[in-house]
Design brief:
332 residues; globular; 0% strand
Length: 332
Amino acid sequence: MAFNKNIKIIANYLFGPLIFIFFVFVIYKQLAAKTNWQESAQQIINIVKKPGQWKLWAVFALMFFNWGTEAKKWQVSIDQVQKISWWRAFKATLIGSTIASFTPNRTGEYLGRMLYVEEGKRTETIPLTIICSISQIITTLAIGSIGIIFLKKHMPQHGVLHANIFYIGMNMLLAFAVIGLTLLAIFYFRLSWLMNLWHILRLPEKYLVYVKILDGLSTSNLLRILLLSFFRYCIFILQYYFMFSVFNVPLTLMQALISMSIVFLVMAIAPTFTVLTELGLRWAASVQVVQLFSTNVVGILAVSFGIWLINLVIPALAGSLLILGIKLFKNK
């Protein structure tokens, strides 16, 4: 017993610092592997000295609304399991973003958020947190599908647009998005079907409690979570629109919406390790799509780097600092 107690004490004091050190290390490795990041960073520094700097600060301010909205979503989703304040949900969301940085497709986000849930209720919040994520994916698939349709109808007629492979790629992406959207929407709004399916397949009863938790989500709460996801999506678009203007990438609001909806769609479908690989994917997808409207590739790269830094790295860094004060176990 004394040995187990000592292990818990050591874990309490080492977990936070180790996560913080590892996070800083992977950020360093990520930047070291990208030769373009220094040029992009210098562009950001130069913008701070120019009259249009307010747009950059606006993007930074919108980052708080971005993660604040995500915190509200999570607060609403787990309400039936544990009442939690928005501020506590906000801190849990930041820590979740830190843990998500080291896991495929942000799966570690659930583990990070559980640190702010009472012991004994943590596993019950996992399915509810998954529903929270699914709502954002549904929004991304829906708007991304519309974005592809609009892009195919209003494409500029130059360069790579004449290549058949581009149209084939867009059609395949649209088909995948529509199929995924249909399946997820059915699952999202028909959670009660899981109960019947569970009994039909005679799955283990001990896990049925998690299905019942999902079934306890009211339609009004599901719609509320989905509406918050849409609001967060609008924040993303507005951030990119400001950043395109800052770095002289002349896109209208509609062009920014169309192009970034497709980029978000690609990023939602493609497997990533967030901090480790997302910057490269974000750069590649953004250049391929946004250059259909602008040839300022350097500016596009700077925009992607800036958004990655503001929306992902800074919140995850803040979360890593919060982890320093988290104790995994109670000292008993």
